[in-house]
Every structure is written in C-alpha cells, then in structure tokens.
Amino acid sequence: MNTKKIINPLISGKKRKRNEKAIKSVFFLTAIFGIIIIFSILFFLIRETYPLPTDIWSFLSGTIWSPTESLQFGTFSLTVGTLLVTLGAMIIAIPISIGGALFISEIASSRVRSIIKPAIELLAGIPSVVYGFFGLIILTTWIKDIFGVPTGETWLAGSIILGIMAIPTITTVAEDAIKAVPREFKEGSLAMGATKWQTIQKVIIPSALSGITAAIILGIGRAVGETMAILMVCGNAAIIPTPLWNIFSPIRTLTSTLGIETAEVPVGGPHYHALFGVAVLLLMITLIINITAVYLLGTIQKRQGATSKKKKHLFSITLLIKIKKIFTSLGLLFILLLLYLITGLLITAILVIIGGLLWFMRNKISQKNLQKIAFSTLGAAILLIIVILGIILSYIIINGAGALSWEFLTEAPKRLGREGGISTPLIGTLYLVAGAIAIALPIGVGASIYLTEYTKENTLTKIIRTGADLLNGTPSIVFGLFGFAFFVLYLKFGFSLIAGQITLAFMIIPTILRTTEEALRSVPQSLREGSYAVGATRWQTIRRVVLPPAAPGIITGAILGIGRAAGETAPIMFTAVAFSSFFPTSLLEPVNALPYHLFIISTNVPGAAAKNAAGGTALVLLLLVIGFYSIAILIRNHYQKTMKW
Amino acid sequence: MIDIQKKTKKEGIFALSLLAILMLVITLFSGCTQTNNENQGLPIVVVGRDSASGTREFFWEHVMKKGNFTTTMLEKNSNGAVHQTVSTTQGAIGYVGLGYLDEEVKAVKINGIEATVANVVAGTYPISRALNMYTNGEPTGIALEFLKYLDSTEGQAIVEDEGFVPKTSTGSYVKVDGLLGSITIVGSTTVLPIAQLAAEDFNTLYGENLVAVSGGGSSVGVQSVGEGSAIIGMASRELKSSETTSYPNLVKHIVCNDGIAIIINPENTYVEDLTLEQVQDIYDGTYTNWDELE
C-alpha cells in the first residue's frame, strides 16, 4: 500500500507532463488553424482566378467594368469605391464609438450602463440585409430630400450605413479595453488632483490605446467586407466620383460587385474568373490594411510597454501624434463638408469661427468647464447611437408587427412566402448558427489560450496573431466565394448545410479569438503566479484560474460571433441556401435561412403580401437575435456578479 | 520631453488653423461648382440590372442594340430592387417584368403602345421575350409531367396571376401514376416565381416533394442542366452560341412570355411615351435630363 502511494505521484507526474504536452499541442493546432484557413482561401481563390480574362495591369488599372457587354474587366473604380466608402464610414464611426465606449465605461452609472451596453450589442445583431433595406427605404430618401440630389443612393449613404454597422464592433471592443485599464492608474491620477476628464484624456486613453486600435481594426474589417447593405444603398455605378470628394456620387465597391454578380454567373466563364480576381484583389486590399494596422498596433504596444519598463522612443510618439493629427483633420474636413451641405455657407462659417475661438480659448477654460463640455459631447455620442438604434428598431417593428402570429412561425412558406410562415428559414438559420458556433468556439478559444497562456511573444505567435487579424479583416463575401470554390465545387458538397456551417464558422473564428484573447489578458498575472506557486500545472491553472474570470469576455465574443453568423447572407448565399419550403434531412442538403428568405421575398417577389411577409421575417430575425443576446447577457451578468477578485 | 510636447502643440494649432482656412476655401469652391451644376429640369437617374442578369442581356440586345450602357447607371440585382429605387426616386427610369407593375411606378408607353399583357399577346408591344425551361434531351418522368403541368390550365393560371403573359393552355392537368424520386430546377430568378408556385401545387397534388426549385440566374440554369446537376434549367433568354456548342442536346420548352416595362416615377410628368430609340439614348447617356425629352 505504502509503496503504491509513493509510486503513484511519480507515474501521475509523468502522465501529467504527457497530458500537458498533448493539451499544448491541441491548442497549438487550433492556433495555426487561422493561418491554414488564410492560405487555403488564398489558394482556392487564386486557383479559380486562372485564367484571368485580361492582363493583370489592365485588370488593376482599368476604370471600365463591363464583364458581359464590352468585355472590359477594369477594377480601379471599384477599388477606389471601396476605399472611399470605408474612409467615410470610419470618419463617422470612430469618434462616435470611442466617445460611446468612454461614456459607458467611465461616465455612465451602472444602471445606465446596463441599458446602454446591451443596446449597442443589439446594433451589432441587426442583420446587414435589414440595414440595407432600412438604408434603401429611409436613409436614401432622406439624403435625396435634404440635399436635393437626384438620387440618395450615394457614397454618403454607403458610408453612413457602414459607419452605423461598425459602431457596435468598435464600441464593444474599445469599452473592454478601457475597462481593462488597472484601477490604480485612474486612482493615482485622481489622487493627484486631476479632473475625471483629464484622467480619461491623459491616463485612460493612452493605456487603453492598443485595445482601442484593435477595436478600430475590427471596425475597418467590418466596413471593408460588408456586402449586402452596401450593395443596396450605394447605387453600384462603377464610377470614380468627380470631383473625388463628391459624396453624392453613386459608387460601387468590390464587395457589392461580388454580391450582385456572383450568384448568377456561370462557372468557368471569363466573367466568373474575373469575379474571383476581384475577390483576390479585395483580399489583398484587406491584407494591406490589416498588415498596416498590425504594424501600427506594434508601435503603440512598444510605447505603452515603455511606461512600465524601458526607455521611450521619441520617434514613435511624434509619429503617433502625426497620425492622430491626420485623422482629426480628416474628420474635421468631412464634418465641415457635411455641415456646409446641410446648413449652407453662412452658418458653417460662423460655426468654424466659434470652433476656432473655442480651440484657442481651450487653455483658458477652467478644467471643470472643460470636463462639462467633454462629458456632454460624449453623452451626445451615446445619445446618437441610441437614437439610430431607436429609428431602425421602430422601423422594423412597425413594418413587421402586423405579420407576426403563431402560424407565421410554425408554418412552412407557401406561395413564395406570401402565405404560410417562415418555419423552414427559421429552423435553417438555427441549424447554420448552431453548427458554426460549435465549430468556431473551440477553435477560437483554443487559439487564444495558446497565444496568451502557452507562449511568449515570438515570431510564431506574431505569425499566428497576424493570421487571425488577417482572417478577421477578410470580407464575409470572400468567405462565401471560398466556400463555394472549396466545399461546393472542389469537395463536391454542393449547396449544403455543412458547407454553410463551416464557412460561417471560419468567418466568426477571429471575432471569438480576438475577444477571448482580450479577456484572458485582462486576468491579472498574479492569479496565474499564485496558482503555479501552489503546484498547479499550466492546464489546471488555465481551467481553474484563468478561464472562469475570463468567461464573460469569451461569452461576449461568442455573442458577437452568433450575431454575425445569424444575420449574414453573403457567406451562405453561395454555399448553403435555397429558397425552399422543406426541412433539410441531412447535412448535405441545402437549407433556407432567414436573412436569405428576407432578401429573396423583398427583392424577387412582387406584391403587397410579400412586403408584409418581409417585414415579419425581418422582425423575427431581429427577435431571434435579441433572444440569443439576452440569454448571453444574462449569463455574462451572472458571471460578473460572482467573479470578484 | 516637455519641449517636444510644447512644440507639437504649437505646431498643432498652426496646422489646424491652416486646415480650417483650407477647408473654408474648399467648401466655398465646392459650393460654387454645385450651384453651377444646379440646372433646370429633372436629372435622369438611370437604373438597370447587374451584369449577370438575363433581363439585362435581353435589354442590351434588343433595346441597346448591343451598345454600351452609361457608366453612371445604378445597378440592381433584382426586379424588386429596380422597382424600389424607381418608386422612391423622382428622376429615375428602370426596366422590370410586367408582374412588377403597380401604382408605385408608372410604365411609359413604348412607340405609343401601353405595356400590358394584352398588347404582348397581340404582338404590338415591342419589348417582350419568351421565358424558357431547358432539359438535357427530351424530358422524361417527373420533368415531363412537370412541364405538362406548366402547360395546363392550372399552370398557365399561375403565369397569369404572376403578371406574366400566358400562352394557350393544353387543358386541365391529368395526374399520372408511378412518379418516383425528385428533380431539381435551377436558374433564372425571373422564371423562379412561376416554377416555385407550380412546384408547390404539383407537390401537393402528388402528396410528395417531387420538385425542388432554386434560383441562380439564367446562365447558371443553362449550365446546371447542361452538366447534369439539375434536371430542368430556367432561362429568361435564348441560348447563346457558346452554350449551344457546349451543350448540344438541350431541348427548349417555352413556359410563357414576359413583357418588359420601362418604368418611371409617378411624379415624373415630363414623359408618358418614349420611342425605343429614346430609351436607348437614355440608357447610353445621350440624354441626361428629362427636359431634353419633353
């Protein structure tokens, strides 16, 4: 008996080591999965691009896109369109979202926060098709009437819609980053007599800068890759605005080209190859944006690390200030232009003068007043978000409430969705989302555990992280095209549930990875050290010490993932969906899904009955997402209450 | 350190005030150009379909005479989206199937002929086409029965309800025994409503899911049936020469006819009647304002 007791720990010690190694390699596999996906996407897209119907130079620099008539395949105007729309969207979204994030985390009382935070997450859950229809019916009409332009389907409309869509992504992640700033920093600053606003400005923002930058990267990723909403509101004329700052020109992005043409293009023709060329180009642009962002993030992190450890690089500070300046001036320019167009010359001039005076008087205003001004600006930002949300929600509810009934939920669509209900698309969406999250959650969480817990920063983690960032910036429609080329054509799955699930899973892995990583990093290092000190292995530490407090953050990531997967049309449009009224009986059959059903009945079925049903479908889709969100928010709140260290 | 901060602050103020002046100049400038652009009349907003659309291809061949569209044309991926934009944009012009006509848009007369089902049947309305289904070789089994169903009184009633132009029906459909399995129908989104509705009734009649329908567009329809991934392909146009070479065995079956209406906003009072040449000139960008057409 005694000997056994002595031997046992030895064996289990070896076993433990082996287990630890096995666990580590599993996490390693999940971590490099992102890289594998990126490369296979690139490979399969390029494979389908060949042979490009034109030479590469005229493909990139040509300004005429006429793939079926004059057979010209120039994509330059599409590239410019994509960049301009994204730029506009960021100018709108970044100030509002960061203001919102600051308001939520630093100014709002916990009661206000508990209302506002879910509201913003809700904004993320509104499907892009719904945004598109809201944009097409309400926003473009407003723009047309207010500015007196012939059509509201413009660059401006596209930027506004994309800006709104990027707000929740940026706000949520930025808020997490701000919350992760150690309390001591804040307390120290306040103790030295700084006002709350000074603390926010000089302590909190700089410390949270890496997280805020990550938030902006995520936002850009969302904006560049958005397809369904943008193709409905920006007119899709393949022209470069003249003059270049003409925000009332219709515009066409790379994604909307893919969105409207790919579904109906015959496989293997010149048009088909050219579209895959567009997808590769889109991917390359996002790669460039992301690599730049990753590089920037690196410089900021280096500087931030310096506050606690090493010397400062003067260069990076001035560089950063310059970057900040460029962004603020671009923002100001856009706002002024808008202001002028809305209010006319005189008022703009007066406002510019007032603004200038305020700027020069900045140092003369007392800190208290400055704080008042700043806080009310932040409050206005959050109010704006809430108002936007309110308008969109009330629009959806007013349009959809009439159609809603028990039969609508439980009956299969009949007569093209005009009669009967939406049981098949509803169940189809649930199937798709469940499959996607089941695949994506283990991979995303595993990868982030590997990155934060198992490795120090080295070339490999850099590559893995870059891979995840690149995957995150990959537009959803590119996932759709990849899914089509790989699962549907190459693996011969055909349009099938499984193809849609995996494609959606690939798309949401980086969202989960990013947020999980952020959550894991916010767990204090001292907790881990304490655990190791009492003899726990790495895996035990992760499971018992690190994961529980990080759970709320992981759940937030999963929520964002679910929200995205449930509302996405682009990735499933070419991989999984059919406008059918049957339930799939196997993974290899196509399904109907709510956003696709909505898209088809609102664009392809004439008549008032279809419009009514479309309203109902939009409302159900929204309620479904709210349902997901509420459950997840409840879980998170529960964790937050029980976890205190 | 402090020096640098001070310096950058000064620089910042300088740069920003410079920027403010610059912006004022730009806004003034763009203001001038804008007032210059504001001429009389109503600018034409040309709305068309996407490059992969069969309807666009038909329009391009028969109205545009294979000439180029204006680059400022807004492109939409469905009839419904074209209708939506035209119904909310005062200066817009678009083209949709007759089934999409309602009080929210106004169909212009073409060469003096109104866009109605009766005029298409009579052959006087100039922009119409056949909606087709293709099979690889002569149809058999379920495909044959389904095509028969489409030709029957029941099938053509669906055609008429959906606003398409029916052909003479072959009488009431007679159910047959011994149909087994299932078939898929893929292709044109224009034909899709008819096929979907007919499939629902057909499946109900037989009490089994014999026929499944999905979209994809005319070209996809032809390709799918040619390569065997679908039993019936739908197309809102005739076969191209490249398609007849690739798939020589395709057999055409006309489902019905479809008129294409040229639609404008009801508030557009400039025109009621256009010639085909005028439509062409609008779509190639020769006319840019409705008052040129008054």
Main sheet properties of chain A: 2 strands, antiparallel
Principal-axes geometry of chain B comes out as elongated
- Please give the share of residues in helix of chain A: over 70%
Secondary structural class of chain B: alpha/beta
Give the class of chain A from helix and strand content and strand pairing: mainly alpha
CATH architecture classification of the largest domain in chain B: 3-Layer(aba) Sandwich
Can you tell me the CATH superfamily of the domain at 73-259 and 271-400 in chain A?
MetI-like
- Tally of individual domains of chain B: 2
CATH architecture of the domain at 73-259 and 271-400 in chain A: Orthogonal Bundle
Q: Give the termini separation of chain A.
A: 42 Å
Which key phrases capture this entry?
heterodimer; A: 645 residues; mainly alpha; MetI-like fold; two-stranded antiparallel ribbon; 24 helices; disordered N terminus; B: 294 residues; D-Maltodextrin-Binding Protein, domain 2; 2 domains; nine-stranded mixed sheet
